[in-house]
Specification:
Layout lengths: L7 H11 L2 H4 L5 E2 L2 E2 H18 L4 H10 L11 H23 L3 H8 L13 H40 L2
Antiparallel strand pairs: 1-2
Bound molecules: fe (ii) ion (2 copies).
Length: 167
């Protein structure tokens, strides 16, 4: 699934990130059944719209949201590695974002606190809360869709098996 956002203002705010070679690597990383690139754009654009609606800093919401999962990981992670990254990736993403895109204090907070309360870094800004909650809603939806897909796949296999064995 390709995510294309036709919103000139949004595009202008995030274009340097979208066009960055390092950030483009997220296109190859699986994330809740889609790519980490697609997940990041979904969270970023939704957070941008909410922040704009609430008259908040929509630029920080868009950029922080886009970079909240900016870390490179293998698609063949062990379970142990996945668990470890659940708790360490907010800091890794914040450091990557800060080093490459010189993110500001608010954007850094958005990124490092997006896993609260699973990762103990309390969100300091309203925009951090927006990205935190948007990520949870979108992440949970993606996870359920992935699970549904696996369930329906398993159900189809079982059905085929049953049909083949019913005489
Ligand atoms: Fe995350
Ligand atoms: Fe996320």
């Amino acid at each position: 699934m390709a995510v294309t956002i036709i919103d000139k203002q949004y595009q202008k705010i995030v274009s340097d990130i979208i066009e960055n070679e390092e950030f483009s690597k997220l296109k190859d990383i699986n994330h809740h059944g889609i790519t980490r690139y697609e997940h990041s754009i979904k969270v970023s654009y939704r957070a941008y719209k909410i922040a704009k609606f609430l008259n908040l800093d929509y630029k920080a919401a868009a950029r922080g949201g886009l970079l909240h999962d900016f870390f490179i990981s293998s698609n063949d992670k062990t379970h142990k590695e996945s668990v470890r990254l659940t708790f360490t990736h907010p800091r890794i993403a914040r450091d990557n974002a800060h080093n490459i895109f010189m993110t500001n204090i608010k954007e850094d907070d958005i990124i490092v606190s997006h896993m609260f309360p699973f990762y103990i870094k309390f969100p300091k800004y309203a925009e951090s809360w927006i990205v935190n909650l948007t990520d949870k809603v979108i992440g949970t939806t993606e996870f359920v869709q992935k699970f549904d897909y696996k369930l329906s796949y398993a159900a189809n296999i079982l059905l085929l098996f049953a049909i083949n064995h019913i005489k």
